[in-house]
Amino acid sequence: MKQPATSPKPFTVIGGFLGAGKTTLLNRILRDARGTRFAVLVNDFGDVNIDVSLIESHDGTTMSLANGCICCSLANGFIKTMIDLMRQPENFDHIVVEASGVSEPAKIMDFARIDRELDPDGIIVLVDATSFNERLVDGKLTSILTNQIRSADLLILNKVDEASAEEIKQVRSSLGELAGGTPVVETSHAAVPLGIVLGVDAGAVQSADDSVPAIDSVHSHAEMLFHTATLTFDRPIERPAFDKFTEEMPSGILRAKGFVNLEGKTFLWQKVGASAQLTPSGNRQCEDTKIVLIGTSEIDDRPLLKLLDPEQVSA
Amino acid sequence: MVGTTVLSAKKIITMNSYAPEATHVAIRDGRILGVGSLEQVAVWGDYELDDRFADKVLMPGFVEGHAHAMEGSVWDHAYVGYQDRFDPDGKRWRGARSLDEVIDVLSEVERTMGDPDEVLFSWGFDPIYFDSERMATKHIDRVSATRPVLVLHSNGHVLNVNSAVLNAAGIDRSTNVEGILKDENGDPTGELAEMAAQYAAYKAVGNPLLDGISANALRRYARSAVNAGVTTATDLYAKFDDSSLAAYAEVAGEADYPLRLVPAMNTLDLPFDEGIERVRYAMKSSSEKLHYGLCKVMTDGSIQGFSGRLKWPGYFNGAPNGIWNMPPEQLTDLVMAYHKADMHLHIHTNGDEASELMLDAIEAADKAYPRRDHRHTLQHCQMADESQFRRMSALGVCSNMFANHIYYWGDQHRDITMGPDRAMRMDAARTAERTGVHFAIHSDAPVTPLGPLFTAWCAVNRLTESGQVLGANECISVESALRAITLGAAYTLKLDHLVGSVEPGKYADFAVLDDDPTNVAPGKLKDIGVWGTVTGGIATKAAEKAG
Predict the structure, then answer these.
(1) Which residue on chain B is closest to A140 by alpha carbon?
(2) Mutate which of A114, A134, A142, A275 to disrupt the B interface (most B C-beta within 10 Å)?
(3) What confidence tens digit (pLDDT) does each residue in A216-238 have?
(4) pTM for the structure as a whole
(5) Which of A69, A172, B1, B64 is the most exposed place for a label (fewest CB within 10 A)?
(6) Are B166 and B140 in contact (CB under 8 A)?
(7) What is the value of ipTM here, to two decimals?
(8) How far apart are CA A156 and CA A133, in angstroms?
(9) Are B303 and B384 in contact (CB under 8 A)?
């Protein structure tokens, strides 16, 4: 088994049908990235709306931006684009793929599940609140939309400002039927905090201080608050306690990531929406458990810390 | 000398309505000057008589309206298909009729390879014909367990690899990804069905077919064309990047290049305006042997891959409906944008839901921006029913049908994909003819072999691989089939003023045949020998068939 030379690159898939807001979100990622050099793979360069002054070079299939991000067109096919990109791992930190309107996001995420140089981060699927239900009953689209919704770790219900309360209710009901356990975040103009879309390592999280609410950088649209908290725990955690901790994680916590000292062994724990994974951390060993949580409402870490304490569990 | 050559032949089938037969054709400057008897063509003045084809039959050079220049590059790699195939050099690759025979072919190629790390890539494998166990690493490892060996299936979507490739790609029992087939012990068998698994294999050891078209591949493509009597051929899913355009220009500029190329740009990878601009840019460098202007659209998948989009009642075996390559409304917008910009669309539609969507789109586009004579063409058009053909006729839409399917997969369509009734109307050439649709028939080479006489044989006889007739009422006459592989195809390419018949002013392009297709039993059409071609007055002999 080959081990990658550098640590695996996070790989995030942004899915959703036409008009759901994928391009708006991708443009924000490219524009607002701070510290993290994203490689953003898009279907259509024509939709990328970046200030020309920020573009350092453009060779037809790859655009390099002043903030360190690169944007690659998928015009040569997804396989070839990925192979070419992975030959230059020094040029980016995190891959974000725009899944085309008809693709199955899970099959794109499989690239990261199979390639040890990639780390499967999450599948974020945007949903157009104004048209989703109408499209869902179109026989030509039903299976595509159903597949996309079911593959999501996290659903972003977009354009709620253009939809009536009744429409939103009906779309939420459809989403509930298709993917009941998957968290749904409502927003407009795809103004969802990038920390929720891309995780805590992504540099997009502006609130450096724990539990200080941060405001997303897009102020022109409906501003959306998100909150972070960092849990630290200085003793090894018993497995049953950790299982309980993950089970009882409040639904408002949309992302979490950190190293966990589980009965003396270090694991990486990552959660995106409803799905979480625990993987051996490789060479990295740590005594303390430290987990960063991101949610849409204020996070009270005290009940969570209590769950990690074996005394509390056995009591 | 004024540079006039007169070719004499046993018979010239002109496809020209006012003089369907002739014995002599006068050629000047690569074009046809006159056609008729020797006396009739002699009126043009001094000439040099070339009687090397005196015992041959000449037809207009065949026009292949749907093939791919990849036919020129696949033969750099080992062929492991079920049927015998000839490569551009005339070498016969024996069909591998069992798993053991596939391994034998690969082992034979492996023995000729020097560098132990060089990848052995093969193509054309089609297990649909085998009842035996599935191919696995244990089989391919008999070829070599150390050299990477890849076996691409004929559908292009499934790949088998040996353990060297699995190791290099890091695929093992712990890899849990859709499309990696595992055995009863949980170990991967080496069959990789989805994009991600193939990515891992190609990332580790490469895939020579991922690169764009080269001049050398185009030269090999032309050799295949000569062997089949083809003088005009499409490259119907082309990248129009600078290096591909340069490769087309390079070969088209060669005096002895024997093929007129008609590349169709793949529209799906570019924003509409950029794609239109790119085709217009390429059209400026069109020349006698290079004809730009076609735009290719992929709508659905394939019938035998269960990825074609079907109307009710769907697949006979209950498989779920197929896939769209782009959201339907975006495909509709694409048709509108390209139609508005006066582009010429060639639209891949296999299933009847796909052909219906595209007929709706063309109807809407033509209503918004009425155009006479757009000649948008539904390619494959395999499942269109009679009502759709009537719409095509009304809308001026052409159909280029995949007649070779009847032979290669007709049995599977009857038994598995379509069921007995709908299978009878696949590639309904007779219905196209009756409803007044301009139509052609094609090979989709390298998917099936390039060979218009074989394709004509399929449309005339409609015999499947097992020898049964599939839909006798859709058989067309030999005359109709010969028209479909010449003028019919030329019409769909908007090249019928230049090629497709033997008429004064057109290019002096001929298929040189050993026999008269109108004078052999219809069942023998495919067996007529091809001496080679004449392109712009220059004769090129087909490769000697060997092996």
Answers:
(1) B328
(2) A114
(3) 333 333 446 678 888 899 889 99
(4) 0.90
(5) B1
(6) no
(7) 0.86
(8) 15
(9) no
